[in-house]
Structures are given as structure tokens and as C-alpha cells.
Amino acid sequence: MNQIIKKIRMLEKKNNQKDMTKINNTKAETSRQMVVLNVYRANTHRNDLPRVEKFQIPVQRWMTVLDALLFAKSYLDSSIAIRYSCRMASCGSCGMKINGVPKLACYTKISELQGNTITCEPLSNFPHIRDLVTDFSQFFEHHKEMAPFIHNNNADIKDENKLSEFKQTPQDVDNYLQFSYCIKCGLCYSACPTVATDTKFPGPQALSQAYRYYADTRDDLSNRRLNAVDGKHGIWRCHFAGSCSKVCPKGVDPALGIQLLRGHIMGYSRNENKIAKLRDPT
Amino acid sequence: MKISNEWVNNRENREGIKGWLNPSRYGWERISYWFQRLTGVFLLVYFIGHVYETSSLLRGENAWNAMLEITQTPGGHIFLILVIGTSTFHSTNGIRLIFTHGGKGLGNPGRPDYPYDAISLNYRQRSGIWVALILAAIAMLYGSAVLFSGK
Fold first, then answer.
1. Residue B19: inside a domain, yes or no?
2. Chain A residues touching B4 at Cβ < 8 A
3. How far apart are CA A56 and CA A191, in angstroms?
4. Which of A86, B24, B78, B149 has the smallest number of Cβ neighbours within 10 A?
5. What b-and-e string marks burial along A137-146, b requiring 16 or more CB atoms within 10 Å of the CB?
6. Closest CA to A126 of A116, A135, A117
7. How far is CA B69 from each of CA A125, B54, B66, B82, rounded to the nearest angstrom?
8. Tens digits of per-residue pLDDT, A67-82?
9. Each residue's pLDDT tens digit, B76-96
10. CATH number at residue B143
11. Which of B11, B107, B120 sits opposite A199 (nearest CB)?
12. Do A241 and A151 lie in a common domain?
């Protein structure tokens, strides 16, 4: 028994070391005193010609791109338009293109970026409003199309005394949990090459959410979701460029969800009995 | 709820095809996507040319021989080598995509942990892309050895 515990501890230690090496390798940091922040400026409603404004920002340790933008807004030009809220990669408001790649400004440290110039532009594939702010209406409409909620006719939501509770195994939860971490920041939608050319394509976020609810054993709206994605501009337009998963800041891996959902439609995967059992209220 | 036409027709700020032109921003999977499209378009052009070439048979032996002469020039050889390379890459990478499009070889969903590496962009996919690229290179080398040696 002791030997087994010893072995488990050794394996854990080995895995922790591996993880730390992985983290250290992925986040090579660069230290510098000042950076030039190039900020895209334009007001669509005033038909402004787009221009890039440069700001000299003093760099502090752990400073994020959002901190740099807020420094510029506080001390250099208060008219810069940015959308942000939580500053901790939970709300998904501060998505923008940083050096050409969609990222969350609050989740991107300046020390992770190479060079002395940082370029901030609004997200591609979203209609532009002003400076770094874009319109998410279309994106949210695609999300709503997928019926992003659990629907179950067996659930008794009216009788408070007879509260319905569904049984799910940890494996049932693992099937959809990572897709439920989506914060709707729109980075995947901005990176997707199909969204770039097809306005009716729901995009990686909406499709992966369709899978998130499809894979949930408590839900019984699968057919509606499959009908929503199975169209000329639907799931078949995804060609697995993987860019959505590459830019996702929460590890949702939308490309995986899309391919798994397509696997179910094509019959690659078994459509197992989906409905979770109701717990006996007595 | 139906999506309004106003929204879906709004093409403002869309990257369009120019978004494909810099595939290096998003890693090997995006490069493979770009190659797959590029080789697909090239093979379509070749296919149309090939149908035109073989249809010259209808105009007699001389017309057919004249058409074959074009492929015997250095330019014709280079074009055929490109056809060999693109068709090898397109078919090998296409077989990989047939599996991935059904969710095979991508791994299982789990609980994401920092630094949140996507499991679908795993070593199996990257190896598949490299195998397709290496096979295409080998096929092109073999093709050029055969075509330019004149045997």
C-alpha cells in the first residue's frame, strides 16, 4: 500500500514538473522600460477616417495591455473608447486584435509580447462602432439561434415542493463542462476564416455551444439544435482551421465541440441515450 | 428567433479572403487549412486544363502530339511537378480531415487547465500535417528526378 502511495506521489511530482516546464516555455517574458502603443482610432457614426495614434507607455511588471490602454486613457487621451469590465478574463469584454491576433487585453501581459510596439485594433468580423469597440449583436443572435439553455419536459419547475433533480455522473459532466466555460468574448469568431467570408455562418462560439447543450444529458432539445446547425451555411462550412481553439482564452476548444457535433450528425459517434434520470423527490 | 437580414448582410469589418493571406498568425492548423484551399484551387485549374488537353484527341493524332509537346518543356515539367506535390498534399491532408471532421483523433473533452492548450490541436494533427507535407516533398523530388532525367 505504501509503495503504491509513494508511486502516486512520484507521478504527481513528475507531472507538476512537466506542467511548470510547459508554462515556462509558453510564456517567455521580455522586460523593457517603455513601449509604444498603437491604437486604432475611428468613429463609424461620424464617418471618421481610420487612423493609428501612438502613445508612449511606461511599463511596469505584470502590466497588461488593458492596463496600458487605461494608462493612455487616464493620462494621455481620455477619448479612447475601450470596452472592459472585470480585468480578469471572466467577462469577455476587452477582446481586441493585439499585434494582429485576437486576444483579451486584460489577459495579455506586455512582457509576453515581442518588440517595443504593441498594436491594438478592433476585432475583425464584428461591425465597428468606435476605436476598439465593436458591435456584438450579430454574434449574440447566432448564439441565441442555438437555444443556449437546458430544456426538459420532465422537469417540474412549477411545483416547488417537488423539486426536480437530475442524476449525472462525473463522465456526463466532463462531456460538456469545458464548452460551458465560454465567456462569449468573440475571439474565436474574429479568428475564424469561414466567418470572415460567410456572414450567415454561426461561427465557432455558437456551434460549440450547440454541442455543449447537445452533450448535456439533462437536455431534450437536440433535434432543434441539429436542425439549426445542419444547413447550407451551418456546421458543414467549418473546415477545421483550428484558429478558434488557438485564440480561446478559456480552453473551451470550440473546434473540438464542432467536430464532435458533426461526428454525431454523420454517425461517427453513437447517439447514446441522452436523457438523465430524474431523482426521486421522496 | 430568426436572424435579421440587416445583421447577416452587414459585411463591415469582415476580413474576407485577405484574412487567409497571413496564415502564420494561428499556427500549423491554419497553414494546413490555407494549403488545402490553395492546392484545391490549383487542382481544379489543372483538372479543367487536363480535360481540355485530353479532348484534343478528338482533333486527331497531330493535335494530341502537339498538346503533349507542351508538357515536355521545362515549364511543363515544373507544372507537372507542382501537380504531383499539390495532389499528394491535398489527398493525404484530406484523409486526415475526413477523420477529424467526425471528431476522430482529436481527444476527449475534459476539464481545461492553465495554460489552456486546446486538445484538438494535438501532436496527432500536427504529425498528420507534417506527414502530408513530407510526402508531397518526396513525391515532388521523385517526380522531378523522373521528368528531368528524361527517362
1. no
2. 141
3. 28
4. B149
5. ebbbbbbebb
6. A135
7. 48, 13, 5, 18
8. 999 999 999 999 999 9
9. 999 999 999 999 999 999 999
10. 1.20.1300.10
11. B11
12. yes
